[in-house]
Amino acid sequence: MDVSRRMFLKTTVIGGAGVTVFGFSLAPVYAQTQGLKIARTTETRSTCPYCSVSCGVIIHTLGDKAKNVIPQVVHVEGDPDHPINRGTLCPKGASLEQDIVNERRLLKPQVRRPGATDWEDISWDQAYSEIAQKVKKTRDDTFVEKDAAGHTVNRCEGMAFTGGCTDTNEFNYLVVKSMRSLGVCYLENQARV
Ligand code: SF4
Asked: Domain 40-105 in CATH: superfamily?
């Protein structure tokens, strides 16, 4: 059969619907092609971090978890068993793989000092240390024991905390306990927005 380029493209499109001019369906071939991409992956269920809808996603990772093997995320799709999105994702969620596998993704803490124009790489230990010092100083400087009417309030008005929709219940429990122990009263979460 003489197949022109136009006919081949037409056949390809029609084949996806299960009928071709060749007389056989290409649908199983397409299905197999889709299957190959995730045939050897590990599935990890997670939550899209982009907005408060919190759609469920399945992250497909290649790698047999052997020592010295770096896992590679190869595909992210909506979780059909998730009650919120039932397998669907908006364009932002559908591009999640690019959020994970991206040469511009930050892998270490950075700080931009007052007056500086560039970001500076710092170690995690240094980041923790500097954050702890600033939290201590801010709390000391802004802690209020009594309000204007003389009522005991014991609150820190100089700090606020906001969480994300991917935070677990356990994490949020610890956050609230920690922040309340510091007297922080401005607590918010993106999942409420
Ligand atoms: S997939 Fe879209 S709608 Fe769902 S949580 Fe992500 S950004 Fe929000």
From this structure: ADC-like domains (2.20.25.90)
pLDDT for residue 4 is more than 70: no
Render pLDDT for 53-65 as a digit per residue (tens, 0 to 9). 889 999 999 987 7
- Could you tell me if the CB of 93 is within 6 A of ligand 1? yes
Q: Where in the chain is the domain with CATH 2.20.25.90?
A: 40-105
Q: Model confidence over 110-132: pLDDT tens digits?
A: 999 999 999 999 999 999 999 99
Burial code of 31-40, b = ≥16 C-beta within 10 A, e = fewer? eeeeeeebee
Strand partners, 60: 43, 75
Distance 85 CA to ligand 1 centre (A): 9
- What is the distance in A from the centroid of ligand 1 to the CA of 172? 21
Of 48, 77, 97, the one to substitute when testing ligand 1's pocket (max ligand atoms within 8 A of C-beta) is: 48
